[in-house]
Design a protein that fits this description.
The chain is of the alpha+beta class and about 120 residues long. The protein contains four helices and four strands. Strand 1 (about 45-50) and strand 2 (about 50-60) form a beta hairpin.
Amino acid sequence: MLEGEEGLSAEQEELARAVMEVVLLAGLAPYNVEAAVDGEVTGVGLAPVPYNRRALRVKWQQDPAAARHLPAELSGIQQPAMHRALHTILSAHRFWIEDAPLSQAPLGRARTRPGH
């Protein structure tokens, strides 16, 4: 869970476990609230969706200190690229992802699309 986010519903808890399993299988680090206190905030975080208690926003958190070292032309490219990568990873694992531009953080709705 990203810092400052509210608790999850039972459906979101189940989805969160499944998403984090896939994130770890892909070799990505999960966002860690305790590490963020020490300034290490890079990783994949989850945020509940206020209008949908069954979905989670899957976000890439770039460490601000590392981002300051990126050339200006890369800073606006890296975040959308990571969101596209997360979309691809979740889709490959048959997660139901809400339709949206690939540059946005994917909105995971379920482990598999209904009827599949």
